[in-house]
Write a structure and sequence with these properties.
heterodimer; A: about 170 residues; five-stranded antiparallel β-sheet; B: about 325 residues; alpha/beta; six-stranded mixed β-sheet; two-stranded antiparallel ribbon; 8 strands; disordered C terminus
């Protein structure tokens, strides 16, 4: 049952009950803020300026890192975190992003504790690179507990089915 | 003989003064009892009906005198059918101005649910915050950049330890949307705010919650999404009192400063469901009897105890002086 929708940067996510989301807009500098509030330097070459989406069934932090970062340490065993991160257009057509479409049918066996960007005991991760709507993305999913994967992964799949990219 | 008459006259005058004093005292007692009865009736009406509806509560809250400098309440719009009297709870020295307790609703009670909060952050992120279907309670703080009394709350939110909230209470600040607030001003205000405290700009949330002015606080039960209580307060202690009145017993956690958590809470573990249910029931009984937080009867002095129990029946307790 969807209760809320978060939409921005051409991405819409319908959230099941108990999930929340955040979509970081295209630029690291808010279009809402006046120019005086903008950082004085341009983004460096490696700095991410593309949008990203965070979805979770636990409270997200305001300054959560692109792939969750240290904030994922507090995840409970039935918690899940989904990050959908867009990459620069220059990545289009590369082998890494060759798969088409957002994965929406994950299986518990796809999760591995070695797939975590930041290893936290008990947690498990999944990562996939793909292209959707001519936009290169990385999907990164973290489960609070690998032992609970069988019950949590269907919930994650429901969230993934609610994501639409235009 | 004249001496006797004079003495009798003096005695009569003294007696008359004494009787007049007694009558005045009686009138004062009657007045207080009537006020107490009126207050009790209001609370009973709210408890019996499962709490006033959100808009009713909002309308009731609109009778709260605003602090100088506070934003004026939004104009009366939707429903004008509220007939319930606003329970003016005496809050002693606390900062709580007033509160509408809306007890955790059961299936047959009429209350209201809060939808998940949706809006933007001052940085321009689109966000949806879950307040229903979650394990924790959410305390929504409706603040603004211009309201003078909000400033102390913004400052307090920078120090999660000082909030003295249990682990299962999450704080979410909601300001009006970019149509009515300056994102730059809000960004500046929320810069020192603890990262676990979400800040959302959403005029829609203000409308949905019927926020009459700032500061305003709404406590939402996570599993059900029901509003547990709402009101305004002068300081954070007033907010704590609001939460206690709303049914969440925080009395055992107030005043203890354990380490902070990502929620902005204090790391205190929630009590078991049966304990909470029992304490809610006790709170309700006390409220119905007109005993609110800060009531003198909750803090008996040593002389009171001595008066009610001149002799200690249990000598094992030893000397209590």
């Amino acid at each position: 049952m969807s209760t809320a929708t978060v939409s921005g940067a051409g991405i819409t996510a319908s959230l099941p009950r108990g999930w929340e989301g955040r979509i970081r807009q295209l630029s690291p500098v808010s279009p809402l803020l006046p120019k005086t509030a903008a950082p004085s330097r341009p983004p460096s070459s490696g700095e991410l300026t593309e949008p990203f989406v965070h979805l979770a069934n636990f409270p997200l932090l305001r300054n959560q890192a692109t792939f969750g970062g240290a904030a994922l340490q507090g995840m409970g065993p039935t918690n899940a975190f989904v990050a959908l991160v867009q990459y620069a257009p220059s990545c289009l057509g590369t082998a890494l992003f060759a798969p088409r479409g957002l994965p929406q049918k994950l299986r518990p066996t796809m999760f591995d504790s070695n797939a975590l960007q930041r290893t936290i005991p008990g947690q498990a991760g999944f990562q996939a690179f793909f292209t959707q709507s001519n936009r290169p993305f990385c999907l990164y999913v973290v489960l609070g507990s690998l032992a609970q994967a069988r019950s949590v992964v269907p919930e994650v799949n429901a969230v993934l089915r609610g994501i639409h990219v235009v | 003989m004249p001496v006797v008459v004079i003495v009798e006259s003096i005695v009569l005058v003294v007696l008359a003064i004494f009787v007049a004093g007694l009558l005045a005292s009686y009138a004062d007692v009657r007045k207080r009892l009537e006020a107490l009865e009126k207050k009790r009736s209001s609370i009973s009406a709210i408890s019996a009906s499962g709490g006033v509806t959100g808009v009713e509560a909002a309308h009731a809250m609109r009778s709260v005198p605003a602090e100088p400098g506070a934003e004026p309440p939004e104009p009366e719009e939707e429903l004008g059918h509220l007939q319930l009297e606003q329970p003016q709870l005496d809050q002693g020295d606390t900062g709580l101005l007033s509160v509408i307790p809306t007890p955790a609703a059961s299936a047959n009670q009429v209350s209201r649910r809060i939808a998940d909060l949706a809006g933007v952050t001052p940085e321009g992120d689109r966000v949806a915050i879950a307040v229903a279907g979650v394990a924790h309670q959410t305390l929504i703080a409706f603040l603004s950049s211009g309201c003078r009394s909000c400033k102390r709350f913004w400052a307090q939110l920078a120090d999660p330890d000082s909030l003295q909230l249990p682990d299962h209470v999450r704080v979410v600040v909601v300001t009006k949307g970019v149509d009515a607030e300056s994102p730059a001003a809000i960004a500046e205000l929320c810069e020192p705010v603890a990262p676990g405290i979400a800040v959302v700009m959403s005029s829609e949330a203000w409308r949905d919650c019927g926020v009459p002015g700032t500061p305003y606080f709404v406590s939402v039960d996570g599993p059900t999404g029901w509003v547990r209580g709402e009101g305004t307060a002068l300081d954070w202690q007033g907010v704590i009192d609001l939460l206690i009145l709303a049914g969440g017993d925080l009395s055992s956690t107030v005043g203890r400063p354990p380490p902070s958590t990502p929620f902005g809470g204090t790391g205190w573990r929630p009590k078991s469901g049966s304990d909470l249910a029992r304490e809610r029931q006790i709170d309700r009984i006390l409220l119905e009897a007109g005993i609110t937080p800060g009531h003198p009867s909750l803090y008996p002095t040593r002389s009171d105890a001595a008066a009610s129990s001149p002799q200690d029946p249990d000598p094992r307790r030893g000397d209590r002086t």
